[in-house]
Amino acid sequence: MAAVDKKTFKREPQTTEDAGSRGQQQKRQRVERQKAQPTGELKIDARKLWEVLRRGDLDAEVRKVKMKEMMDMLRGHIKEVTFKHDMSRVVQTCLKYGNDEQRSEIAAELNGSYVDLSRSQYGRYILMRILKYCPKFRDEVIKSFYGHVRKLVRHKEAAH
User: Fold this and answer.
1) Residue 59 has pLDDT above 70, yes or no
2) Contact 124, 117 (CB under 8 A)
3) What torsion, rounded to 10 degrees, do the Cα atoms 36, 37, 42, 44 define?
4) Which of 24, 36, 84, 101 is deepest in the core (most CB within 10 A)?
5) Closest alpha carbon to 126 in 91, 159, 100
6) What distance in Å separates the CA atoms of residue 46 and residue 87, rounded to the nearest whole number?
7) What is the pLDDT of residues 134-153, one digit of tens each?
8) Which of 117, 54, 111, 52 lies closest to 81, judged by CA?
């Protein structure tokens, strides 16, 4: 950051060491923090691919290839990332644009954590997508709520 002259309160010109805007420095720091997390690289790569997948004007063949890439990337990690804001959107997009096999794979991997998803601020949207796009898993989702309804009705997120 440029130094300020205390008498005139004017900034001295930036040196080459200060090159790059503050926003760029913050972005680099944010990316470094994300990479330090256990699923950091996965999140960064998945979000880049998600930017392509979520576009409405994407060709069907290209979407099919990109969905295959996304599923290969997320396979085995879906339960870990569904409770994060940005990755929740990625999984929702996969449920929306994936074929039946890919949707079933996501729903099967999340099986057993439907109650936790309903309590999550971001996971509940994934649960709604599973109910909408995965008719085979609707009974399993409903059965997973048996015995938990009274608690969920009073829960801040699950009651919505």
Assistant:
1) yes
2) yes
3) -60
4) 84
5) 91
6) 8
7) 999 999 988 988 887 777 77
8) 117
